[in-house]
Predict the 3D structure of the following.
Amino acid sequence: MHKTGKRVLLASPRGYCAGVERAVDTVEQLLERQGAPIYVRKEIVHNRHVVETLQAQGVIFVEENDEVPEGATVVFSAHGVAPVVHEEAAARQLTAVDATCPLVSKVHNEARRFAREGYRILLIGHEGHEEVIGTTGEAPAHITLVDGPAEARTVQIAEEKVAWLSQTTLSVDETLATVAVLRERFPHLVDPPSDDICYATQNRQEAVKEIAPQCDLLIVVGSLNSSNSVRLVEVGRLAGARDAVRVDSAGELDDGILAGVSTVGVTSGASVPDVLVREVLQWLAERGYADVETVTTTQETLTFALPKELRRR
C-alpha cells in the first residue's frame, strides 16, 4: 500500500528520441563553432521550451530561406524538407546543414523509389504538417494524402499500382486502421520496406498503454504542435486512463485536475527535454505525489551521427 494513497507512474521510454537529440546537438554545435546568429528554417523540433532556449542563445528561426541573409548558414529542421528547399538555399548561396531525422529521410527515399516505379503513393498523415509537406515534395505528382480511416474510405485514385507511406509521428493504431481500410479497397496495396512509424513514437505509445489502465490522470508533457505528444494523449485515453492532459510545462498545471486522483501517469513527447518532466514530478511531489515508480517497457540505445556538414568540420 502507498502511505498517502497517491503515486506516480513514470513511463519509460519518454522524451528525446535520437533524431531530436541529433537536431538539437547540430544547432548547439554550430553555435559553439560559428557563434550567433545561426538561422534555422522552421522550428528545429516541435517544442516551445527548446525553441525559446535556442533563441536566447542567438538562434534565429525563420519560415523560409529568403529570410536568411545570402551566404549565411541555415539549418533544416528534424522534420525534413522538400527538394525545392535545398534548391532555394543553393540559389541564395546559403550553407545548408540538414538536420532531418534519418528515419524521415528513409521515408523520403521510399517515396522517390515508389515514384520511379510508377506507383500512386497514399501518404498517411496530417495535412499541413512539416513532415508531410517535405515527403510530398519528393514526388508531388505521385502522392495523395490520406488523413485517417475516414479519408481512406473515400480517396479516389486511377492507378493500379498503389503503395502506402506514413508520417512517422502518428498513432500506431490509427495508422494500422487506415492501412486496413485502404487494403480492403486496394487489395494489391504495397507496404513500405519497413514500418514507417518511428521506433520512438511506437515505444512511447507502448509505454503509455502499459500505465494508462492504472491512471486516474495521465499528464503528457509536450507542445501543441508536436504530433507525437498529442497522439500520446489520445493513446492514453483509449488505453484506459480516466483522464489525460497535455501541457508544455508544470506552469500550466492546476491543482483542480488532481481532485479524486490517486494514480498519476507521466510521460513526454519525443521532442521534450527531461528537465520539463522533472519539473512536473516536483510539482506533483509538492502536492503529495512523491511516490514515483518508473515503468519501463523497452530500452532505447539508437543514436545518429551528426549531419555530414559537421562531421567534415
Notes: The longest strand covers residues 7-12.
